[in-house]
Structures are given as structure tokens and as C-alpha cells.
Structure prediction request, 448 residues.
Amino acid sequence: MSELLSAKTCELHVHIGGCLTAEDLFELGREVYDQIDWSLFVNSFENAYGTRPDPPALYRQALAEGGGQTLRPYCVYGREDGGDFARFQAKFNFSICVFRHWWHVLDRQDELLDRIVERHRNEGLRYVEYRAMAPFDAEDADDFIDFHTTMARAMVRGARADFHPRYLISLPRWQPLESYRVVRRLLEQQPDLADVLVGLDFCHFEEGYPPESTSAFFERLHRDNADRPAQRLDVAYHVGEVYFDKSLESAVRWCHEAAELGAVRLGHCTALGLDPAAALARREGAHECESTSERLAQIRYDLHHAEALRGRGMVVDCDALRAEQDDLSARDGSKPYRRPYSEARLEEIRLRQAFVLDCLTQSGTVIETCPTSNLRIGAVPAESVHPVHNFLASDVPLAIGADDPGLFDCRLEEEVDWVLRHGGLDAKSLEQRLADPYSFRCGRERPV
Ligand SMILES: [Zn+2]
Prediction:
């Protein structure tokens, strides 16, 4: 593993829920499979695939055959699953049923989490930032605090001289400020956890949650970080991953806005790297419609950045934009706004992508790219148009992550090798291009 060692041993983008491998699920289920409530998995699998699996029978077969291989078709999401989100969720639910049983019924959370952390340590990783999400209730946040405390304690327990696990709390996009306040409460109650709790994350469905809806949260976060630099929390933000609800311009803008708000790393940003023609070809009429309020946000953005966009060779007619703004402002913001694409518009979107990539480069905002995840969930239709090619051609700081290594059966090392195979750079050039992802870690600006 001497080639690209830094990139292969520093993982900045994994979700704990997606870390359990088929082998882990075999071991965790082998003695309790007939007590696990499988209904979530069985029902969603039947809906997505049309057949109703029998998990206890699968385990009996796996035990007879001596391993997790038997479980793989039910818990590993592969290329053959066809980029269908319902199928992805169905296979994820296998893991969730086992996870919940160990967490809520057996009350053996530590063993469950130690297994995940230990696997990464044994794979030779040196630094990992894990993320996880819990249900949030602003009226009674004790469960939220307990869940994330248990996670963070697993990181404290798993640390070794040559292995440093860290933790990011995934905040619900619909209640960023409220849940963030509870995270600060957690840190006040247990200040020792600040060593491992280094950041916050936004993940899961992004559609319907524009970055600007987190502006009050970011304002508060920046104030708190200035007041408490030793407990500084940085934000990693999934954006521009799945964005069929809006125009390509808006999807590009969302990535820019998340960076402008102060996220230090952006997850996926497919919208900045996938060629617009390939993006449109994914679905009939893709990205032609968005809400009127989204169009208005785009007009505000274009007026604000008019000069910089013109500097890129784009035509920005401010008078026409203001007239459109006046016209649309009188309408119901939720009403759909439709604009078909032309070749000229696609060319303009490429300029917008390059503009935002340069802005991220200037601000030092990192893009986390997850090759297998992007290809399997269907956002990226083929290797040849993977956004990583555009990212590599730019100077944007770039980190490679596995996202859900258990669910996709992809180790970080393999993800980096994928970029080496497909990215058009030899190992030495890629190593130089990627630099050391450790320098992109959350909490890196804390005083030492
Ligand atoms: Zn992710």
C-alpha cells in the first residue's frame, strides 16, 4: 500500500450505518437472527425487488456454508441493482435491522461500534471521520444526546497511537439550529468528548433544503467557534448529490452557497463535475423544472455575481434579470418554473461549474468525492463522466471517501485505486494532486 499512502489511510467520508459488511452482519446475526425484527427489511425488499426474502432461512444457509457470502445479495448494493434508490434503501435496511437489534434490544452498542472501528484499524487506516444521524426531538433531546455520546465514546475507546477515529454529528436539515444547540449542550456536559467530536454534517435528502435555510445555524456556529476555539466544530455538507428537483444552474449554485456559508468540506458535488449534457440525459425532461422561488434565488445570485460571471465569458443581462424578478415576485413561489435547455445554455453551465470550482479553490473548500457511491446510487451514469475527472482537472482541494464501505463493499484503498485507474494520472501525479487529506480534517484550526 506504499503508493498513495496518505489518501488510502485517511478516510474523511463514511457513515457508520453503512460500514457493516456482509461478514459483520453474518457474525452479528448468527446467534440472534431468529429474534431480530426483520419487517423493515423484508417489506422494503419485496417492494423493490418483487420477492420476499426469509432472513432466518438465509442465516441457516449461511451457517451451513460457513460465512457471509450467502448474505451478500441481500445486503451489498452493487452495480447490478441498477441505481434505484428504493433498492439501495432495501439493502441498507438489512443492516439497519441488525443494527437496531444490537442497539435497542441487546443493548450492546459498544460491541457493535467497536467492530466497525476495529475493522478500519485492521485495514490500516490511520485517521477516520465517522458520521451518524439520530432522530431529533427538540422537546426531549436526551435520546439524541445519548446516541451521539455512545458514538463519540466508541471513538475515544478505539483510538491508538497510530489510529485516530473522529466523530461528526449529522444534523437534521430541517432543524439545524435547534439540533446544533443540543450538540453544544452535549459538549458542555462532557467537555472531554471535544477531542473526538470535531464537526457536524448535513446528509440524506438534500432536495427541499436549500443551503440558505441553514444561514442562522452557520451564523451561530461561527460566533461560537470564535468564542470557543478549542471546541471548534467544522461543517462537512452533502450538496449537489441528488438534485432532480431543480435546474442545473441552481444545483451548481447550491454547492457555492454551502461553501460561502462556511462549510469546510462539501460531499459529492456531482453538480459541479458531471457534464450538463450527461446530467440531462439521465431522465426525460431532467432539470427543466424548478420552483419559482428557486428561480428567484438564481436571479439574485446572478445579479450578485454578475461581474465575476461576465469575467468568465458569460452574458449576464441585469436589466432582463430584474424585469424577470419583478414579474416572478408576484407569483406563488411554489409554482413550477420551466425552462428548456439549449446548447448555449449547456455551455454556460460548464462555465458556471468552472467558476464555482475556482471559488472553492480560493476559499480552500474541499470536495469529498466517493466514486463507487456516485456510480451505484445512479447520480453518475458512467465511469467516463464521473465528476472526479472535472475535479482533477481543476485545482479544487479533493479528498476521496468510501461513503458506505460495507453496503457498497468498497474499501477506501479500492476507491483511491479506482481514481488512479480512471483519472488519467499516474500514481505520483495523483499523489501530488491529492496532497495529504489529513490536512483537510475537521478541527484542524483548533489551537494546539
Ligand atoms: Zn455520504
